[in-house]
Amino acid sequence: MTGDRRPLLYVLLGSALLVTLLLHLVFLPRYLPGDVLLTVLTVGAGWLTYVLVFYGLGRVWPAPDRQSFPNMRFADVGLALLLVSLLLLLALDAVGIPLEGVVGVYALPVAGIYAGLALLGWSVGRRTEAINEMVR
């Protein structure tokens, strides 16, 4: 990126991190037990900003080799991990395991969801940065 556009990327990274923390630490505990619609909307917005944080990190972090074009293998792994974790969460819900009673059982799929979203955002950010370097 040019010198004048790099600070905007840091602003995106910082604001996405702030909004992610705000959504997950303030709003989600407020809606989680009772209101299903607001919980789903808050989680969806939190996931979107979480992906934006790792997208920004992928754009800011210096690449070891600027000449090679990064592949999207990490995005594929991240998307697969995200989908498998979501299916596991749905299976746990279909079996009838309550979220309030057994939080530890839900910890592995939730960690898989966040790892998948991080890999997806990171690899798209790396690819975008490589494309911008090639265009320049």
From TrEMBL:
Transmembrane segments: 7-30, 36-57, 77-97, 103-124
Keyword terms of this UniProt record: Membrane, Transmembrane, Transmembrane helix
Name the UniProt record assigns to this protein: Uncharacterized protein
Annotated source species: Natrinema salaciae
